[in-house]
Amino acid sequence: xxxxxxxxxxxxxxxxxxxxxxxxxxxxxxxxxxxxxxxxxxxxxxxxxxxxxxxxxxxxxxxxxxxxxxxxxxxxxxxxxxxxxxxxxxxxxxxxxxxxxxxxxxxxxxxxxxxxxxxxxxxxxxxxxxxxx
Length: 133
Fold this sequence. Notes:
The chain has helices at residues 7-21, 37-46, 53-59, 67-80, 84-91, 95-101, 111-123, and strands at residues 2-3, 129-130. By secondary structure, the protein is mainly alpha-helical.
């Protein structure tokens, strides 16, 4: 199993975060706080009309104050529960939402690249992650 001490885990999480932030449009909340991929994931999963347990778990962690921190916790939760590919795929279903959140260079806007990314993430479902949440 992959644990918190694994170098590969840190590299994987950094690459996932890079992908989710790459060519992300700058958006601000009503109070001026910069939105990040966490906000994109929340909006995408909210469209599915069912509460995602990972979103519920992360929002219950009151020590997390920033969207980036919440996004990182969500990625870890999804890795442990083998839900990362499915959760991201649900967020990537709506092309209008993707264009609202990402500029044209984002790999998520390319059907071929999106399929490659999701295929690789689905392969991670075979890996056991024992991470502190």
